[in-house]
Amino acid sequence: MTATPHSGNPTGAPLRLSNQAMAFVLAGGRGSRLEELTDRRAKPAVHFGGKSRIIDFPLSNALNSGIRKMAVATQYKAHSLIRHMQRGWGFFRAERNEYLDILPASQRVAENKWYLGTADAVTQNIDIVDDYDVKYVIVLAGDHVYKMDYEIMLRQHVETDADVTVGCLTVPREEATGFGVMHVDEQGRIVDFLEKPADPPGMPDDPDMALASMGIYVFDWAFLRELLLADAEDTSSSHDFGHDLIPAIVKGGSAYAHRFSESCVMSGLETEPYWRDVGTIDSFWRANIDLTEFIPALDMYDNAWPIWTYAELVPPAKFIHDDEKRRGQAIQSLVSGNCIISGAEVHNSLLFTGGRVHSYASLDHVVSLPYVDVARGARLSKCVLDNRVRIPEGLVAGEDPEEDAKWFRRTADGVVLITQPMLDRRAAALE
After folding, report:
1. Which stretch of DSSP H or E encloses residue 398?
2. How far is residue 265's CA from residue 278's CA, in Å, rounded to a whole number?
3. Which single residue of 19, 45, 160, 400 could bond 41 by disulfide (Cβ 3.0 to 4.6 Å)?
4. Pairwise CA distance, residues 107 & 109, whole Å
5. What are 137's strand-pairing partners?
6. Residues of each annotated binding site
7. Cα(105)–Cα(102) distance, rounded to whole angstroms?
8. Which of 151, 134, 130, 133 is nearest to 17 (CA)?
């Protein structure tokens, strides 16, 4: 189905539905499972992939899909997130009918009322969405890594005349127990919504697989607006899309599932749809390290679907010293600009902007966030190094589980998270 041309379209050419849509990005959550990585920043502001932040993925998907009206709702420790969007996403021009609004929780409804839930974050900004004058609203989570063309999902929404269309991952049934799962009929209509079921229902065409919610929803704005106003008056509601609004529509309206495999963007190198919730230290480490593979599961080099971000103006990476035991080198690694590998060895690692790795140090399967300094002789393996950490000379981490756990956060999978407060406590204890 093609969009009906607006009367203001003199050529009569069909308009993309994305031209009539806005993206409302929910980016207020801390992401507490990332532990100390989110002590000073919201989860969507966490760095990913060498140059980007997690928020860049849903925003880039919207922009690449043709959506030019966006709003980002923030709440928890939003300064770094807001600063990033101001620096990297300030190219929208109102004279071209383009907008990106940042909507911090600002007691707009009552002095003691912050965003009470995902739906309430939209409810409190109804007047702002009204000003966009859009027909469709796409509600997006701001904390997942994936590439998706929302235009395809919009078209399905219109073709099925749905009240809501829910973006869904296709996952093995045994892995779906941690998700909200859609039970659908043969036409893709959702007949039941189950939150983290012990026995997830299979898909009609593949009983061994289940449809898990991605936290992506498409609504007609007129319908959603009335739904939000009614929900705001319901004192028993938690004012959340997944817990309240979507189950209510499934019971009394028309809800359809949209399979991510139908709208995911793959460059040709990617062999299967890629979506990651990098919400734990282990999953964050793994998703970043996976990018160092010869053919990574996520193609960050796809110029046809770029991941837009704030790009600092920095000098190139540099590798210095070429002695037998003091050679600056990086093997199967991603090294960002303004990094200097000085007589050190880096293997299967990802270094963000501004890193320094000094002589005789070695990094193996390390994710190093921006402006980390690794002193001489340090030996690190399977680590995540927080922003601006100063690794002391000769530190060994990632080899002795008991020693690691004494000073740092070590996960069940053996990933070691190192932050500056941890190093400061260690230094004080060893004095």
Report:
1. none
2. 19
3. 45
4. 6
5. 22, 219
6. 115, 180, 195-196, 213
7. 10
8. 151
Residues 327-386: tens digit of each pLDDT = 999 999 999 999 999 999 999 999 999 999 999 999 999 999 999 999 999 999 999 999
Task: Determine phi and psi for 379, rounding to 5 degrees.
Answer: -130, 110
Q: Are residues 383 and 398 in contact, defined by beta-carbon separation less than 8 angstroms? A: yes
Strands (DSSP E) contained in 238-301 are 255-259, 275-276
Which residue in the block uniquely carries the two structure tokens 């995902």? 118
What DSSP string runs through 223-237?
HHHHHHHHHHT-TT-
Neighbours of 207 (CB within 10 A): 10
Binding residues for alpha-D-glucose 1-phosphate: 115, 180, 195-196, 213
Task: Name every residue whose Cβ is closer than 8 Å to that of residue 112 and which is 6 or more positions away in sequence.
Answer: none
Residue 66 to residues 16, 59, 369: CA-CA distances in angstroms?
A: 8, 11, 31
Are 245 and 227 a contacting pair, CB within 8 Å? yes
Task: Give pTM, 2 decimals.
Answer: 0.92
Query: Strands 318-320, 340-342: parallel, antiparallel or unpaired by DSSP?
Result: parallel
Q: Shortest CA distance to 100 belongs to which of 313, 308, 279?
A: 308
DSSP state of 84: H
Strands 334-335 and 164-172: unpaired
113-139 core/surface letters (b: 16 or more CB in 10 A; e: else):
ebbbbbbbbbbbbeebbeebebbbbbb
